[in-house]
Design brief:
By secondary structure, the protein is of the alpha/beta class. The chain folds into two domains: 140 residues, Rossmann fold (3-Layer(aba) Sandwich); 162 residues, L-2-Hydroxyisocaproate Dehydrogenase, Chain A, domain 2, CATH 3.90.110.10. The protein is 42% helix and 21% strand. Strands 3-2-1-4-5-6 form a six-stranded parallel β-sheet, with helices on both faces. Strand 4, helix 4 and strand 5 form a beta-alpha-beta unit. The longest helix has 21 residues. The chain starts with a strand and ends with a helix.
Amino acid sequence: MPRKKVTIIGAGNVGATTAHLMALKGYADVVLQDIVEGLPQGKALDILEGGPVDGYDCQVTGTNGWDETAGSDVIVITSGIARKPGMSRDDLLNTNKSIVGSVAKNAAEKSPNAVIIVVTNPMDAMCHVAQWATGFPNSRVIGQGGVLDTARFRTFIAQELGVSIREVSAYVLGGHGDTMVPLASYTTVGGTPLSELLPQARIDQIVQRARDGGAEIVALLKTGSAFYAPAASVVSMVDSILLDKKRILPCAVRLTGQYGIKDVYVGVPVKLGAAGVEQVIEIKLTPAEQAALEKSAAAVQELRDVMALP
């Protein structure tokens, strides 16, 4: 049985780290694509040469073209410019629109049955661009944001309470940005509701830190943005798709009326399997959470309107 194939577009920090983590999994061949000559080839060769040490036999290929990407099962789009200090995700809109539209179209022509995972920011808006450029159905264009935002939220809660992150169960919904919606009402630690473990004021502070998680790292790095946790988040989604795990993960999907929202990409819990998004999970939100989710969706809609996408 042939190995699965994953193409990662963009050989920067997020793309290259994703490629390395995928190679470590060992069950899929990896293609790293970038427009910079030598960059994807060099990084791919470096990752490939780690195989004898870490024990993976998959192929890792770097390319500046598209032929090597043909027949991919999953395409991960990381290409675009990264945030700089003081820059919002939305500032990236127009530059990354042209980049994402172009690479999504080229990749889809070579892999018409692939599932696309969008990482490029502003991610929710870029999902609309990728779907517009490819014509793929809602189930096969997904945004990575909620997995990362939830990981940050869980990290801060585990640190606060001095417990294993495995004991923290949480969801962060909404757009991948300042309007994200951490669901404190669904957050438990070892099965105990978070509200029974921390005062509301402290929960609010942790929620805000989760919202600012990306900006906090950008400010510390001063050049570039986060890439280790984003790459790990992508790989967890690829795992669920290629291994048909059917995990319930918070991802950006184009809603068709769920949560009272239509035709906007926004983060909600979904079942990820071999077909991509196999089900949108509708959970009961508090009135405040519902209002926050609608506000987040409206912010994504504004960006979509600016880009004049159908």
